């Protein structure tokens, strides 16, 4: 599954694209951080009946890497010859001569597809597990090492060194809680000396941890009991006095261990104010100080807010969100950035309604969508508003607003039907919220729509999932996307492809193209795999993944149509925080059209007739949804 597919962030990005202009395609070039574009060429190409493709980007996904190839037909696609996992089981994805049995440690694999593909799941003991596959004279041996999935305390040491917190230097305001924690053997005596005080740590009520996000994909996301004891204790940041590094004293099994952490905890000064200005084009705001915390509404470039705390290289802003320091510049100010707001105006430009919020300074924003509303919150803003005039609009039925004490203003847009996308920016100190209009489609046609197709993955460094024969996901993604492009063009749509060959690219590039092109719809085409704990043999079907509420109805419609009309199994419709589902300028959906690792479904995936039928069915579903949504 894509959540667990191997990240390609370690790969060196080398000249991923070449500028190419011909009669049918325009491809953007990316050289380092510099994008070579010709907006007039792009505009001209979009106005032609022929289409242009943008070979951009790759989705971080689970890559099933080659394990071994025997001299004969026996082949193992996954796992690799040396593999480490915390799962208590593993599946073996591969193929062999359909007329001979394949044995694993001497026992025959119970089920294989008509073509000879297999995907059995085997239990794993802690430590090294040796699995030998044989078919006739062919043999493949793999070593799978199972490591504990939860922190384990060694009897010699008595505690987990990495569990002592904090692990990074941090600041907090006076009066805020400062907490410490550890994982150790039961009946340990643990205390922390810091800031002149001693804080005793006590066992927490429920010593559990949570599995990774990918566990929901295997219906195994319940809390996991720790094999050790979790301890915690808190104090408050004093208004005066030194901070410095905390020192742990651990009394375990008659021994006393003292460890001073190589980090400092200090007070975030209230005065003068540290003010962060967002310098990134779109500042990534999160609920906490690391990438493991959930994203919240991005902050437009120019946003200003007071820093109220730090943790490592993360800043906590006064409205509650966290952002990397590298996406900001920080200056000292004598007052915090605050604003009033009075008037709000709207203006229609081709394809969009722009709503302008004049402010005294660019403040942090939050956006919340439902199926038929979009709510904008301006933080650090005090309304002085008595009258708002919002002109008759093709997409917005009504604008409501209210003050939210003590320092927020909230604006709720009620839509007439489907939401087609939005974007935000600051022009000086004025926030501009742009709301996209519905496409104007020709009757019984997709003429008037622009559909971006993103064939997932796309190079030898980014194969995606692999089927039992080693056939890579990147190839079938492109085959089906090309077929779908042809079907959509035949129905009148303008289709933009993010790649038309093998490109060593990144998710951010694809997102940049979606934001630049502003298509009617953005669809990322993929095929699926599972985490090690999954059941590859008994998991199949079509899945859809969405992030913004404007994409939910499209996700459900495409899923239900393919399941019903093509008689495909259902894997379900998921909310998922993925790079290719996050764009807001268009309903953006990531499609997982089947499981590469399922022996039977793989045969359907690579069948040319099935691929053509899938593309036609998808095009029909897209056309039906667009016609219905555009005419609401």
Short description:
The chain has 632 residues and is mostly beta strands.
- Shape, please? flat
Reported by name, the CATH topology of the largest domain is Aminopeptidase
Count of individual beta strands = 48
Tell me what portion of residues adopts beta-strand conformation.
Answer: 35-45%
**What is Rg?**
28 Å
Terminal Cα separation, in Å?
35 Å
Tally of discrete structural domains: 5
Task: Kindly report the name of the CATH homologous superfamily of the largest domain.
Answer: Zn-dependent exopeptidases
Give the count of helical stretches. 6
**Which range best describes the helical content: under 10%, 10-25%, 25-40%, 40-55%, 55-70% or over 70%?**
10-25%
Uncertain parts: 1-70
How many strands, which pairing sense, and closed or not: the largest β-sheet?
7 strands, mixed
Structural class by helix and strand composition: mainly beta
Proper CATH architecture of the largest domain? 3-Layer(aba) Sandwich
CATH level 1 name of the largest domain:
Alpha Beta
The pLDDT mean sits at 88
Labels describing this entry:
632 residues, mainly beta, Aminopeptidase, Immunoglobulin-like, seven-stranded mixed beta sheet, six-stranded antiparallel beta sheet, 48 strands, flat
Structural commentary:
With 632 residues, the chain is mainly beta. It has five domains: 2-15 and 442-630, Aminopeptidase (3-Layer(aba) Sandwich); 73-146, Immunoglobulins (Immunoglobulin-like, Sandwich), CATH 2.60.40.10; 161-267, Immunoglobulin-like, CATH 2.60.40; 273-333, Roll (SH3 type barrels), CATH 2.30.30; 352-418, no CATH class. Helix content is 13%, strand content 37%. It has six helices and 48 strands. Strands 16, 25, 26, 29, 30, 31 and 32 form a seven-stranded mixed sheet that branches. A six-stranded antiparallel sheet has the order 17-22-19-18-23-24, with no helix packed on it. The longest helix has 23 residues, at 608-630. It is flat. The two termini are 35 Å apart. Mean pLDDT is 88; it is low at 1-70.
């Amino acid at each position: 599954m894509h959540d667990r597919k191997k990240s390609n962030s370690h790969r060196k990005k080398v000249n991923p694209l070449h500028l190419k202009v011909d009669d049918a395609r325009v491809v953007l070039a990316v050289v380092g951080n510099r994008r070579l574009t010709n907006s007039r060429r792009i505009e001209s190409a979009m106005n032609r009946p022929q289409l242009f493709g943008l070979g951009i980007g790759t989705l971080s996904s689970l890559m099933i890497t080659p394990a071994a190839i025997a001299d004969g037909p026996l082949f193992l696609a996954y796992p690799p010859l040396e593999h480490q996992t915390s799962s208590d089981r593993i599946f073996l994805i591969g193929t062999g001569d359909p007329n001979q049995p394949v044995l694993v440690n001497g026992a025959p694999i119970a089920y294989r597809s008509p073509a000879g593909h297999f995907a059995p799941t085997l239990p794993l003991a802690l430590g090294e597990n040796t699995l030998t596959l044989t078919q006739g004279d062919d043999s493949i041996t793999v070593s799978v090492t199972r490591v504990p999935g939860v922190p384990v305390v060694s009897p010699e040491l008595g505690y987990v060194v990495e569990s002592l917190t904090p692990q990074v230097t941090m600041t907090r305001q006076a009066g805020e809680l400062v907490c410490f924690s550890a994982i150790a053997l039961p009946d340990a005596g643990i205390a922390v000396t810091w800031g002149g005080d001693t804080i005793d740590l006590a066992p927490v009520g429920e010593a559990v941890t949570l599995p990774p996000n990918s566990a929901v994909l295997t219906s195994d996301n319940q809390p996991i009991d720790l094999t050790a004891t979790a301890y915690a204790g808190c104090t408050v940041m004093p208004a005066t006095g030194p901070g410095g590094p905390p020192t742990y004293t651990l009394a375990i099994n008659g021994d006393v261990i003292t460890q001073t952490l190589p980090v400092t905890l200090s007070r975030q000064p209230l005065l003068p104010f540290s003010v962060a200005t967002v310098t990134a084009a779109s500042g990534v705001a999160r609920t906490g100080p690391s990438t493991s915390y959930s994203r919240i509404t991005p902050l437009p470039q120019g946003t200003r807010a007071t820093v109220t705390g730090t943790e490592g290289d993360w800043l906590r802003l006064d409205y509650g969100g966290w952002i990397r320091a590298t996406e900001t510049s920080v200056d000292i100010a004598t007052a915090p950035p605050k604003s009033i707001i009075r008037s709000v105006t709207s203006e229609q430009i081709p394809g969009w309604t722009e709503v302008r919020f004049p402010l005294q300074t660019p403040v942090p924003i939050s956006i919340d969508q439902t199926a038929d509303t979009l709510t904008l919150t301006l933080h650090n803003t005090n309304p002085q508003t008595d009258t708002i005039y919002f002109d008759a609009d093709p997409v917005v039925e009504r604008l409501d607003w209210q003050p939210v004490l003590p320092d927020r203003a909230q604006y709720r847009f009620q839509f007439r039907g489907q939401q087609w996308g939005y974007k935000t920016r600051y022009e000086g100190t004025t926030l501009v919220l742009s709301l996209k209009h519905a496409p104007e489609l020709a009757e019984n046609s997709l003429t008037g729509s622009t559909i971006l197709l993103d064939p997932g993955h796309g190079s030898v460094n980014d194969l995606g999932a692999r089927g039992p024969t080693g056939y890579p996901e990147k190839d079938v993604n492109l085959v089906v996307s090309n077929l779908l492009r042809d079907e959509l063009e035949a129905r009148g749509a303008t289709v933009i492809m993010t790649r038309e060959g093998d490109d060593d690219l990144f998710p951010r590039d694809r997102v940049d193209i979606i934001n630049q092109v502003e298509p009617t719809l953005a669809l990322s085409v993929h095929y699926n795999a599972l985490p090690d704990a999954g059941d590859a043999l008994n998991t199949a079907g079509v899945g859809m993944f969405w992030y913004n509420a404007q994409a939910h109805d499209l996700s459900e419609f495409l899923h239900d149509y393919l399941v019903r009309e093509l008689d495909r199994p259902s894997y379900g419709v998921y909310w998922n925080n993925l790079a290719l589902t996050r764009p807001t300028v268009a309903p953006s959906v990531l499609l997982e059209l089947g499981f590469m690792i399922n022996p039977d479904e793989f045969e359907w995936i690579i069948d040319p007739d099935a691929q053509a039928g899938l593309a036609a069915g998808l095009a029909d579903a897209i056309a039906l949804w667009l016609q219905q949504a555009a005419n609401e």
